[in-house]
Write a structure and sequence with these properties.
With 322 residues, this protein is α/β, with parallel strands linked by helices. The chain is built from eleven helices and 14 strands. It starts with a strand and ends with a helix.
Length: 322
């Protein structure tokens, strides 16, 4: 099968390309390297069934040719990371919304199945104990740049469902909750790689707020397996699924766990959100997914524990300090 992965040089995209290539597929990666890194896929480039195109997904003629020649599309290309969203809200909105709209239009034209990776951010300021796919999306006001990413991803979902209902385009949407693993960059505010790099260098771990906010984390291998299962399951078409871990942990406890696993002499440094991101920043106290829908369809269960994936990441960053 010929498969197009947009954003395939990024953290999740590179792991997906690697797994799909091992299944004897022909893989086409499209990435402009704005947040991706060619080093993530360099080891795949010697394979004759792997093709990397360094270009923006919004280049219509190039993207059309790729979609026309591929069987299915995994759409991962997006502007990501809290820091990037705060600093470049316009680029965030244009990349996410315009890029996705073009892909949907072309996939509809050539009737190619597309899986869109969305985000837990679309739940916004919701207060659910465990977020369900049908919960309301309570996104903050437009004058707060922090919400531009959530708004853009929610708009992508609306567009995707519009093509499903009006054009009968086969679509699948997944909302990812804090996927972590080797190759994840700390450049845009990702908490786990930031903590690990600080810990292995015996620097204070920067915890924003009081550290009592809770999240769940899912190993990249579990996430990739689930994306493929959903793409291959016809019952997933026209549906949206949460993908995430079930183990809840506070950011403060996460920092202490990483200090213990790295045997670091680091301490914890608490920094206010306002100091880090400006006066307008808002955070969610709790964001844990309800994955019962995913379990019912695929039998999903997390195979990699939080400690196991953290240890794997620690080994990776010790071998790749830059």
């Amino acid at each position: 099968m010929k498969i197009l992965i947009t954003g395939g040089a990024g953290f999740i995209g590179s792991h997906l390309a690697e797994r799909l290539l091992s299944h004897n597929n022909e893989i086409y990666v499209l990435d402009n390297l704005s947040t991706g890194n060619f080093k993530n896929i360099e080891h795949l480039s010697k394979n004759d069934r792997f093709h990397c195109i360094i270009e923006d997904v919004r280049n219509e003629s190039n993207t059309e040719e790729l979609i026309k020649n591929c069987d299915v599309v995994y759409h991962l290309a997006a502007a990501v990371g809290v820091r990037l969203v705060i600093e470049q809200p316009l680029e965030t909105m244009e990349t996410n919304i315009l890029g996705t709209h073009l892909l949907l239009k072309l996939c509809s034209q050539y009737h190619k199945k597309i899986l869109l990776t969305s985000t837990s951010e679309v739940y916004g300021k919701g207060m659910s104990e465990h977020f369900r796919e049908e919960d309301n999306c309570i996104i903050g006001p437009p004058n707060k740049r922090r919400w531009s990413y959530a708004a853009s991803k929610a708009t992508e979902e609306y567009l995707t469902f519009a093509y499903y209902y009006e054009r009968e385009l086969p679509i699948i949407i997944v909302r990812l909750f804090n996927t972590i693993g080797p190759r994840q960059t700390e450049r845009y505010g990702m908490v786990v790689p930031n903590f690990i790099k600080q810990a292995v260098n015996n620097r204070p771990l920067t915890v924003y707020g009081d550290g009592k906010q809770t999240r769940s984390f899912l190993a990249i291998d579990d996430a990739i397996e689930t994306l493929i299962l959903l793409m291959e399951n016809p019952k997933a078409i026209g549906e949206v699924f949460n993908i995430g871990g079930e183990q809840e942990i506070s950011i403060e406890d996460l920092a202490n766990l990483i200090i213990r696993l790295t045997e670091s002499s680091s301490s914890i440094k608490y920094v206010s959100y306002q100091e880090a991101y400006g006066e307008e920043f808002e955070d969610m106290r709790r964001r844990i997914p309800d994955i019962s829908k995913l379990k019912k369809l695929t039998g999903f269960r997390s195979k990699v524990s939080l400690e196991a994936i953290l240890e794997k990441m620690i080994d990776f960053y010790r071998c790749n300090p830059k």
